[in-house]
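Progress report, Aim 2. The chain analyzed during this reporting quarter is listed below.
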Amino acid sequence: MKLTGVLRNINSRPAGSPTILTTTHEDEDDDHYAVRRSSRSASMSTNRLVARRHMSGSKQSLKADHSPERGNSPWIRKFSLRRSLKHRTKSSESLASKEQLPFKKSMFGATLEEVMELQKESHPDRHLPWVLTLLADKVVLYGGYSTEGIFRVPGDIDKVCSLKVSLDNGEHLSEFPTTDAPVCASLLKEWLRELYDPAICHDTYQKCLDNCENASYCSTIVSELPDINRLVVTFVIKFLQGFLAEETIKKTKMTADNLAMVFAPNLLRCPSTDLQVAMDNSKWEMTFVRTLINNLDTSYMDGVV
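Predicted structure tokens for the chain:
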């Protein structure tokens, strides 16, 4: 902007005299307008600078709030350490209390040898797993001979699970948890099915299928099983033979074929993981068990428990 004021020659003034700016009336108006615009521009620039600094400070503050370094403050580190130590203490106490509890092995999912070892102290004179004989007795006691579809129609799953836990914990000794024959029948099948090794050993599986209609050979296969396996298989077959009475079949609708179909998967276990092979073998497995039900001599099991 052009100013119209006249500046006198400073060099012509005596030394020490003040500098004097002389303007006309018109020049004063122009200068006043120029000063006001200059002040306004300076004020706007200052405001912009302050706003920028404020925004920059806010961003830095926001970054500081979300910065991971904020978690490194002494108070937060102390609080986190206290929580961590408290959690560790509780976990250690919980683990210690669990370690003090005695580990109790289950009668389900074990080998027959392990089952017999588990009951050595409580049932030292028994030759058969007590859980097997107990469930078989309860099926008969609670009306299994007159229950339609026994073994084929499953018991209530919740009651079966509850009975399983009760037997493992010894709660059945004071009062048996159920009076439902299908529940006992379902758990009996489950116990056989969950054996770590099947009652009829893997190494005899193919011979069972190849000779499933030969009654004499099927009986020989059973007689050559390990002692505990032989006793268990013979006991189960003798138990099933009790359902073959004509009057019983009329009530249960369970023939030898029906019983064999239900129990074959619980006594035999196909070693192949091929589903088609397992399905093809199932009819021969059923034939083998049916042959045993109809022909195996189980008379020597009388009185064996």
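The first helix runs from residue 25 to 66. The mean pLDDT is 79. These observations will guide the mutagenesis work planned for the next reporting period.
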